[in-house]
Write a structure and sequence with these properties.
The complex is a heterodimer of chains A (279) and B (195).
Chain A (H helix, E strand, L loop, with lengths): L1 H20 L1 H27 L2 H7 L16 H16 L5 H8 L1 H8 L2 H34 L19 H8 L1 H27 L5 H21 L9 H4 L8 H25 L4
Chain B lengths: L1 H5 L1 H23 L5 E5 L11 E3 L2 E3 L2 H8 L8 E3 L16 H8 L9 E2 L4 E2 L6 E5 L3 E4 H4 L4 E2 L1 H9 L3 H6 L5 E7 L8 E6 L1
Parallel strand pairs in B: 6-9
Antiparallel strand pairs in B: 1-10, 2-3, 4-7, 5-6, 7-8, 10-11
The chains are: A mainly alpha (279), B alpha+beta (195).
Chain lengths: 279, 195
């Protein structure tokens, strides 16, 4: 038993290391960071070096000085990020299972350890790498923005965010800025991880790398347009709400949605693949 | 060295944390903290009038302005408008937010104003401040009073999905305003609503 646990730990560590060192991870992380810099950090620095009068004149030119990307008032800019969010989270390791099958890596691994354990470790590593590439850029963004404006609160004022006690989460953000930021980062991690595992889910149905890579993107597109299709959907359950600093969504919404996605993808991927004969 | 090599990720994180804390401490020394003022809807805001900025000159105190332009004290902070009605919620010493809000309910919200020292909530471009006979009427823009929002916008922002609920219970709510020095890109102006 102990030997099995050690083996599983080893394989998980190995898979995570593979994911972290993959080219996809570097590309996704860099892409996300560059987007944050262009969209959030650069305007903040630019606004900082302007005098008040200059800034007042420039206000009409869409200079946003949000204290943090998820709290940005530039909704369009934030939504652009969500367009590509599905690709970003799946890029590091989403297609790895397909690649492993193609290259015969799975055969080698499954000769040494039980297949179930390999599948579990694959799932965990995809979850972790997806979560890291999702949460790390916004965490860094938060830290950089604190350096630019050390005393600023999370800038909810980009659209004069007024929060009310009808949502307890709204009040909590005002009272406990850093804790709420940490919670939001955790939600980004969990949701990013869960969303990345959608690629695994698809890999058990198809070997088409292109489709496997883009599946989370299609899902995100669907979620993005869903409220427009069905106006009765509570916006609190949409990632664009619970991943942002908003009084409508809350981390609880994020955790529940992530759990549902993760549970579905795990169940289908694990039990379906376990039965299949890879060797 | 061997330990650092062995645990290079942990060492990297610790190094980053130390560097960040140092940088943050330096930045904290360079910047001044925001002064957040809390205003209750029921409260009276002392000195809740205008902080004057006329012809590129800041007047931090009332006396400075009085001396400079030879203004009678009673003429200060009097809002006037070309519109049919406008609320005079600013006097130099007293601003009662509650009164304004109650009046507002049955009125056209676009012309309703809550006015504070650093921030203007609810503004009509036509509003002017009558300073005195020497200076004539100045628009609020000329006075440099800063931000403006209509109460309607505040409701819109505060409410989100709960707008209707807020509207239906407006008289049961208590409002707290967090307003700070308005330096265009360094301000906090939030409205928290308690039931």
């Amino acid at each position: 038993m102990k030997g099995t646990v050690v083996a599983v730990k080893k394989i998980i560590r190995f898979e995570i290391k593979r994911g972290m060192n993959s080219l996809g991870m570097k590309v996704a992380f860099l892409g996300a960071c560059i987007y944050m810099i262009i969209q959030n950090i650069y305007p903040a620095i630019y606004a900082k070096i302007l005098t008040s009068e200059e800034y007042a004149r420039k206000l009409g030119e869409n200079i946003y000085t949000s204290g943090w990307y998820p709290a940005s008032g530039d909704l369009q800019g934030v939504y652009y990020y969500f367009y590509f969010y599905g690709i970003i989270v799946a890029l590091p390791f989403g297609i790895s299972y397909c690649m492993d099958k193609r290259s015969g890596f799975v055969k080698n691994i499954c000769n040494r350890i039980p297949k179930g354990k390999y599948l579990l470790s694959k799932y965990i590593s995809v979850f972790v790498t997806g979560g890291i590439v999702s949460a790390l850029p916004i965490t860094l963004d938060f830290l950089v923005m604190r350096l630019i404006e050390p005393y600023d609160t999370i800038d909810l004022t980009a659209y004069k965010c007024a929060l009310n006690s009808i949502t307890k989460w709204g009040s909590f953000i005002i009272d406990h800025m850093y804790i709420s930021a940490l919670l939001i980062c955790c939600v980004w991690f969990v949701f990013g991880g869960a969303f990345a595992t959608l690629s695994l889910l698809v890999s058990s149905f198809t070997d088409n790398l292109f489709f496997v890579q883009l599946f989370p993107f299609f899902v995100m597109m669907f979620i993005y347009y869903m409220p427009q299709i069905n106006t009765y959907i509570n916006s609190g359950w949409i990632p664009m709400t619970f991943l942002r600093v908003s009084s409508d969504g809350s981390p609880l919404h994020g955790i529940i949605v992530s759990f549902v996605i993760a549970a579905i993808s795990f169940t289908i991927f694990y039990f379906r693949e376990r039965k299949r004969d890879i060797l | 060295m061997r330990i650092i090599k062995k645990h290079k990720y942990i060492a990297g994180i610790i190094g980053f944390a130390v560097l960040y804390v140092c940088l943050y401490a330096i930045r904290c020394r360079q910047e001044e903290p925001l002064k957040i003022n809390y205003y209750d809807m029921d409260s009276t805001i002392e000195n809740g009038g205008i902080e004057y900025h006329i012809e590129d000159v800041d007047f931090c105190s009332e006396n400075e302005l009085l001396e400079k332009y030879d203004i009678d004290k009673n003429d200060l902070g009097k809002l006037d408008s070309d519109e049919t009605f406008i609320y005079i919620v600013v006097t130099k010493k007293v601003t009662k937010l509650q009164e304004d809000y109650n009046d507002y309910i049955n009125m056209d919200f676009y012309y309703t104003h809550i006015y504070s020292k650093h921030m203007l909530i609810g503004m009509s471009n036509f509003a002017t401040v009558e300073l005195n006979k020497n200076l004539g009427k100045k628009t609020l823009d000329e006075l440099g009073v800063g931000e403006s929002e209509t109460l309607y916008q505040i409701y819109d922002m505060a409410a989100g999905n709960h707008e209707k609920e807020l509207w239906d219970n407006y008289d049961k709510q208590t409002y707290y305003f967090e307003i700070t020095d308005n330096e265009y890109h360094r301000y906090v102006d939030r409205i928290r609503i308690y039931n």
